[in-house]
## 1
Amino acid sequence: MKKNLFLLLFLGCSLLGYGQGILLHGNKTYAVDTLSYSHMVGPGTNYASYRLPEYPMAIYVMEVDLNNPYIKLEGCMGQDKVFGLEQPTRVAARHNAPGHEVVGVTNGDFYFYLSDDYLSYGIARSGQFINNECVTNPVGRACFVLDDYNKPHIDNLDFNGTITKGSDTRRLHSLNMLRLEWESDQVNANMLTLYTNAFSAKTTNVAGGSYAVIRPKSGAFFFSANKDIPCVVESIAAYEGPTTIPNGKALLHGRGTSSDYLNSLTVGDELTIRLNTNLRREPGLITDFKQTMGGSNHIILRDGELFLTPEQGTSSGVHPRTGMGFSKDSTKVYLIVVDGRQGHSPGVQLDDFGAIFRYFGAWNAVNLDGGGSSVMGVNGSIMNKPSGGVERAVGNGMLIISQAPADDDIAWLEFHDGPFNLPTYASFTPIVLGFNQYGVLKMSRLTGYTLTCTPNLGHIENDTVLVVGGEGCTGTLTATYNGYSVHKTVRVEQSPMNFRLDSVLLDERPYRMEVEGTVNGQKVPIDPKIFAWHSGDTDICSVTDGIITALANGTTWVYGYHADSDYRDSIQVRVQFPTKRYMSQSDMSDMENFTISKSSTLTNWTVTHDNLPDGWNYGVRLNYTYGTSRAPFIKLERQMPLYSLPDSVSLIINTNGEIGFNNVIFGMRSNHETALHSLETGVLTPVEGDLRISYGVKDITDTPTDKIAYPLWIHYISFYITPSTQTSGKSYSLAIKELQLCYDRLVVGLTNLSLADRLLVYPNPVTDGVAHVALALDKPTDIRMEVVNLEGRVLMNKNLEVQFGEVTLPLQGLSQGTYFVRLHQEDKTDLVKIMIK
């Protein structure tokens, strides 16, 4: 029965299917291309992404079916308190639990980050209700509202808090909000503020006044809207700064005349607090506010019509955006993010943002915080590209929560977004999603499934790869797992093909040629086995069925030809084998190739290779006399491609414990990028001995497994000296040993391994199954040989008996490729790398 219920719920959820274009300002219709095809990501929840190539614009959409009993919207706060900031996806991860699984998240409201008079870091500027409780009071700004019947509304929210003692009723100006930015200075100087446990452990440093601790008259405090909240005064005192908010109690803080009011109370007085909250257009319609989320105070779509004029939209500027809206029948909620301030998507003005909501099915919509705050997360992954390059910590956000019972069994399959329009000869490995019976995603990349297809499409390789034939057609692709299946219509079209890369940098790992076909603007891999291949220099690399195997350092070309289409192309292949785990990119012996700039207050400047730190055989000293400066720095500039494909890069320095740094910044980039990644250490205190500053490849490039990123480049290293570690007129020395590259894979699972790059191995590549290696053996020695593949698996283990001088390696039976040979002696192990042709 549960499975049938889930199926009905799933079929009732919209698939985000829309027309062909969005009408934006200037009465121009922009074509919409699908980047990520609509697919289910949780109970009653679909996700898709789109682009407007002519605009250009990138759009990300989540659609939530409010009729689904297993899904809910729930507000959240940075660090789970009013007074705090946190990245939305981190908040989502903390809230994720069985029976409360986070399907999606976006950023929320604009927030206070600094004010002239009060510290208000992270407080939502529009107020917020979470699960029917007021955590900050509304202030009249436009908000998305979910009422107690799960019905959405969009309107301005008005707040009128009161506190009553007997027949005396006074204004309660705010709840967990330190200032009312649209009220007069006089009002703010006489505010009466209620602090609850939702704020933080303590109040903030708002100067002066008095405070009263209050407790509930009975039961526990719950600060909901439009209800009497009886309480009792427990203590009264002068306010002298951050004050603990007792657990289960609350604190009233008064300034000016409100301080006088608190001082007029006595311990034991009974008070009644009321948080009167209303929609501006329909006061009294809602008594309970389940969830609210504000933003820039702009309603952008009302009753199906754009609420802002083009002039108002233009004045708002073109920026990244986040917004919320809902359908005409109030059953669907849309959360939409638009990328901005980037080449692929400059952003959108507010009237056009309303048009985007209308295009995707919304009837009403409101703008939330945007700019660098805009982010959308789905099942733990960030889907958009935040304009600052990284996800920003913000004050609050909106979660999409699955309330389904905990269940890890896969009971439903979905194909991840396409493309399912494929070019002829495509080699397509679909991503299959595994859901439980309630629609909760349990496996984002299901394994163990089996693919089948209708014969006209082509054939299946290794149970998971669809290899398309050479004719245009329409067929069905099916994935099956534990008796459950999902079907997808696949359309095959004739299309142009091309090599994805013009050149490639290789090490000992084989490379599968990347050939692409293009259908409807989408690039799809093509099976390279359909080409005839040959290498321009078989001593440098070989190529079989589109798999290139590097054999020796050097540069050559690989050529491919497809007879049926008469298409031919070529790719330049550069081979660089690392010879040991740690290699020096620069030992600083050629400082004349660096451009050095520095603060003018660093005088008596010298560059020397003498008097290096103990144990250094190479390196450089940068000597200077310090003169007072606010921001002293030293910058080394040199554009260098890093050798081969390293796993990490390190800088080794020594300051003799006398120099600290506010920051050390590396300017690096991928080969296919022009913009530099700034890798920053932050503060480094002075340390004795050598200091190693290291970064992994993932810090340098967003695509560490993509050959397009290599070689990696370094452009500069900047040292920002901490002035407090320096004394004016004193001499200092910054020693730099080397810029070092690490190739972790050369360890091959051994400890205490000496990589024998000094050893002579011949012939190499091996062609007849026998190689010879000259070892430094001064007496007959027992040698044991192990042959290991690149994954570290031992393929051959032989005792070579007593050897002296030159050792013969029997390598018969190994297929073409690259291997490591371990040569074990009595007390050491050497490693040699060999290639089999």
## 2
Amino acid sequence: MRVPRFFSGRFQANNLRRSFLFALFLLLGFLLLSIEPDRPIKVAVAKGGRLFDVAAYLESVANQSSAREILESDPTLSDYLKDREYGFLYANPLTAFQEKNWRVYGCTEKNCVQATLYDYDNGGTIEAMLNLDSGQIFNIRSEPRARPGASPYIVPRALAIAASDERVSETIGNVRENAPMMVPMSAWLADGDCLQNWCVDLTYMAPDDSGRILHIVVNMEEEVVDRLFYTRGRPDREFKQPAAQGARFNNGCHEQHNWSVCWEMTANDGIEFYDASYDGNLIFSSAKIGQVEVYYPSWPGGYRDEIGYSASVHPYYGTNVSDLGDGFEVQQLYTEFLRWPNCICCYRYEQIIRFFADGSFELDFISHGPGCDDLSTYRPFWRIDLDIGQTINDETRFWNGQEWELASAEIQLDLFDPLSPGGFRLFTGSAGTGYLWEPVPTDPLGVDDGRMFILRFNEGEGDGSIATGPALTFWPPGQWLDDQSLSDENIVVWYVPILKTKQSEPWWCMPDPEPEFSPCNSLLRLIPTAELPESPIPSPTSMVVPSATATAEVTPTPVPTITPRPIAGDDAETIILNSGCGACHLIGDLGEAGKVGPDLSNIGSNAGNRLTNLDAEEYLRQSILEPGAFIVPDCPNGPCQDGIMPRDYGSRLSLAQLEILIDFLLEQVVEEPDETAEGPTTKPSAAAKVLSEASEVTPEIKQVEDKPEDSTGRTIIYVLFLAVVI
């Protein structure tokens, strides 16, 4: 069903005026909710630093109504937008670092903004630079791959689409009369149109008072509700908040230990650190985080989180500069709610750069969780314009497993495979100085992962505001990877670590176990060097470290040993909880319906009819130990997919646990079994072999405490791994 064109283009003056006033009211409401004006403000120690309140900052520099008036009256843009349906998203002021590129258009002191519109007909955004003083529009361009962060200005359209959907009305009533849990989020789903189309997630408390969150995923291009589903609730826990500072940040510069660096908060790319020099030599021109892509396999889908003063996750408590003795760090916290961790779908990130007296520096990103589901993946997208000594004539070499190979053209690399014997992945050098790039393993199970993209600097490729792209694509920067030569060019490195949550020992990316907290982090260390270590090929001529003395040989960080982690529990509910079945399946009173896996509430009736050569018990055993042997055709959100379920249960479940789980599944009977059975497609002997190996594993099983129940009496399922697709 198509809904009325709320807040769309074609310059419908009355609708635009009414929609703008409504959206402005919503915007002010969101901003007021995000600050605490009555709390004391503590200014961080930073040379030249100035503390900004997010709401006041936006009010003073981002005149949205003026920007819209300029857009609507410009004949060039009007012709460009002719016969297109579009929606205004935001007009964000340029930072001091960004406006240097546009001074020819009179851009100084926050008088220029980057306006963003969404093209609902063709997909992607339309970007334009505006000088608010002169009314001039320049650099109009389209970003067809962009899937931007949500904006309060699109709320009327999203609500109109949701209100027209019968499922929404039956579930929650009048959606306009319900208070949202968080601001609209740019969301995606891996198994539908929302993988490519721009979709927005509206979130509400479940109407059954269970503490769960209802997600209404709205396809903004097709004007339909793509999906309704729930995510788990969490019981509150004791947590003393630090002295609240509200949604605030500092812009400033700092000089210490021969380092000089400046930084400024951006609208949606976090803090942009710029013009960092050591001992008078330029080291990097810019370092920032374009997005944090969050993936929940149980949906399957997630969010395109952005951090910044106009993003989905705001800066809080000011920007802190701390003396480390042999260096200093600049740190900024971003969080959605001041009630963290007693909130659902609330994110808490930290962006940190540390600078050391020996010329080395570190890029650190921390996620505190909990997000919307316990099983999740975080991917921060760092962009580093490394200009060692000068902006051109950069040289990059990567370790190919045997030697340091020259990167002559743009390339994508695995972050950790292979690392040199010293633990390094890249070498970058120019003008007599060089740095080794060391991605530090941090995953407690040793399954560190990530990507690096080595690109040539081009205008419009992330140097300004970064527009997020389709999910699961590494776009940006993947769309700019086109084999351009890197010889004697300005080289930009995109660094994308992948952090995967873990619940129960070892905890990771979680605000648990109570009373502890278990954040996860990714760490990239850049170390000055006089020459390439472990290299059988000639090093760049006369490489000199930025400091007076050469850096000593670096001891590589040991990689944790990967060992199968036993699943705790000696009853079915505990085993299901700790193995993650409830993340993807509904199993009687356990788990959640509508997720990636089929409903197993009647598997006791159907298991014996799935394959002609296996009875029910054999089928269940094989499905757990060999999840790809047979795939049922239908899952809640479309055809079931292979490769979703973990394949290590044979080494993590004891024989006794496996039998307990099978017996429990056989008891799940609510209706008559399916009549048809598929022909044999499996080899039972393979399952028997895995089972035999599993029976030899007798790990010490640690008992876990019972989890609290919600108001409906159902056990709240906390998950660790994806569950079985049966």
## 3
Amino acid sequence: MKTKLHFIVGMVLVAIITLTGCEETQGSATLRLRLTDDSRSRATSREVISPPGQSLLISGYTVSGTGPNGNTFSVSTNSTQVDINGLVIGTWEIGVTGFNQQGTAMARGTASHHLTTSDNTVEVVLNEFIGEGSVNIGFDWIDPAYPNIALDLKLKAQGGVEETITEGKTLFPASASARYEAVLPTGSYDLAFSLYSNGTRIAGGVVALRILDGYTSQEEITILVDQETPEATGLQISTDVVDPVLGTIQGVPATILPNTSVTATFSRGGGGGPGAVMVDWYLDGTHLASGNSIEFSTYTGPHRLDAIAKTEHLGSVGSETLPFRATVESQQGIPVVVSSVTDGELDAQQQPYWLTGVTDTAFLRDGRLLIASGNGLQLCEIRKDRLVVLKNFTSTGAATSPQTDPYPTNGITDITIDTVDNIVCTTARELGTVVLYNYDATAKELHKIVALDTSSSLWDGAIGNVALNTSLKTLYVVDPVANILHFAMYGTEGIGSFKWFGLFSPEIEVVDPQRITISSDGSRLAMACPTNRTFHTYKLSIDPITGNPKVFEELHTTVAAGLASGPYDIRIVGNLLQLALEDGLQLYRFPDTGSEWIQEQKISIDTTRAIDLAFDSTFGNCWILHGGSQPKVAKSTLINGVPIYDDGSMDTGSFVASGISYSPKGNFLSIYGDNRLMLLRISDG
């Protein structure tokens, strides 16, 4: 290792004071001061650690003197010669102080001289440094791996004796560094440093140090360790580098059901050297867990499962990737539960679900879900098979009139959607309130079109559900007390004048109608009356002359005495009618002749009540919500309008839902009730 030897050449500044003008006049004389600075002719062979921004050369002087009878003088000069006139002959005490360019006092000297006309020369030697300063030096040897590290510092003042530093030195082995901080008298020093490991000197050096009055000399020194051992080193080479772990992921087929647990296992095939293998599992780049196997589930769509396997040896990290798809296509429409939430539970954005006393749900044209509950209306979006709350709508108060309330949500029991024009209709049966909204999908907003209630002079109290005929753009409201069917045309701008039709039949009486529905083609209205076990159908049309909607009586039918109680719900597809009774579904056909619908057969094999039904947009498939001790959702295919029961079913466990809704996108169902909601997948779309 090469080293450099640095030298500092000390400087002695001599001030020569000479008396000139040798005539003695009235006991006075002229003092001529000559200052000689020989530092410029001297070189330094070592860089000096000194205060930043401070010159180390003297560039100016102050000279002062005290003489006989209290006489004094004081002058400042940058010149090496100055004349001082009129000094009293006698003994003078003379002092000289040298300053650098920044005005910092560097050194001083004094002399005593008896001034006469014959003795007019005096020398003043600047041989005393002034004041004290501080030092702050950091040492860094980069590598903290050296054991039992020690740093030895020795300080030698110019012209003095070398001393070992014991105070002001702090060692930081963990960061391979040390620091020396101290206050020193002004002057020039040599600072020697030696670095030891296990008692062996491994590096060292010497630096020159200059201390100025009131300033800090600072530096950061990097110690380069390049120390040879005194003896030859025996070297034995071994390696811990191995081949990467190889293996396969087992237990996960190419397709799985969404939200259904599967177990993946890593099977080691080789590599990695001896020892146990450690496996980290990642799904679509997100770490799941560690272990030889993992149980997981995921949402509908394509996915990637990665296993990162390794041992304790270098180079052992290996990976295995398994692409797969979560899909319900193999179910052929039989639902799969992908999400189940309860009231107050939080979504992914920490927003609570409004499911207190949930009464209805309805899918909008864009696939979003509108939920009606005791809290109001809640708009949700489905992301990765999970409901995400977008916006809440609630009434300003129970006493607020629906006419002025922007969101009259009190007591909502039903939601009906016109997916063609994005119109939402809500009904509060007990309050007799019907509200129409325009749904703005972009703004995620409901804009009230009209609100109808008991103050609208149409009905006086509770009403039945509202049916929207999207083919005829007509709204129908049944008044079960007065046995009147109210109807009017509606649109995005408002609602037309209401007409009414009396529900009075001389053959079979209409008693307390509870449920009305519109047929798949919009040509019929069906009405269920469970109190007297009857159902009734009416023909619907638009008057070609006036353009107003019209209602005509069609058939009135009594449920046969041998059948179960009901009907609770009624649906018409073409000339076929499905009736929900206490023990399941019954199929009726429109008669070629006669005044009543003809019972064909019992559709369902179950003996439990069909609580609700949902049809797809083409009326080719139907999903039936069953209650009882084993609640379920059954899938049924319609062939020429005739249901083929059943294609398969999905158990809902202990959850007995009160209703079911179908998404117009054909991918989801929702079932709801008892402060709870389940989201069901029926296709991958």
